[in-house]
Design brief:
The protein is an alpha+beta fold. The chain contains three helices and four strands; from the N terminus they run αααββββ. Strands 1-2-3-4 form a four-stranded antiparallel sheet.
Length: 116
């Protein structure tokens, strides 16, 4: 059974650390913690997340290449969204609620493709 709460907590921690490092600069302990959380996500939830991302790509972004799971967790992956009548979109995995979300670079457009 998928532990959505645990996955959501891990993703929240990566978002908090990434935000802190973007604002205050990198710290070796924070970088180590971030890498630990990303590794735990990949080991315990990577297959599940890839499956959900694959479904999104199959439905909306079939002309795009999937990237490494870290890129969706710690940032936004640029995709071409011809199925959504949008040129350039940012695809990311976000917490609270756990979801795969697509938005335009100006964040005027937002669409949740999957929610846990």
């Amino acid at each position: 059974m998928m532990d959505y709460n645990k996955l959501n907590q891990l993703i929240e921690k990566t978002v908090i650390i990434k935000h802190h490092m973007n604002k205050h600069g990198k710290d070796p302990l924070l970088v180590e913690s971030l890498n630990d959380y990303l590794t735990e996500i990949k080991i315990h939830f990577g297959e599940f997340l890839y499956e959900k991302l694959f479904e999104s790509y199959e439905d909306y972004f079939e002309d795009n290449e999937m990237e490494s799971i870290e890129n969706y967790l710690s940032g936004e992956v640029c995709v071409y969204g011809d199925e959504l009548d949008q040129e350039d979109l940012l695809l990311s995995i976000k917490p609270s609620p756990l979801r795969i979300e697509v938005s335009d670079p100006s964040h005027q457009y937002r669409n949740i493709l999957w929610q846990g």
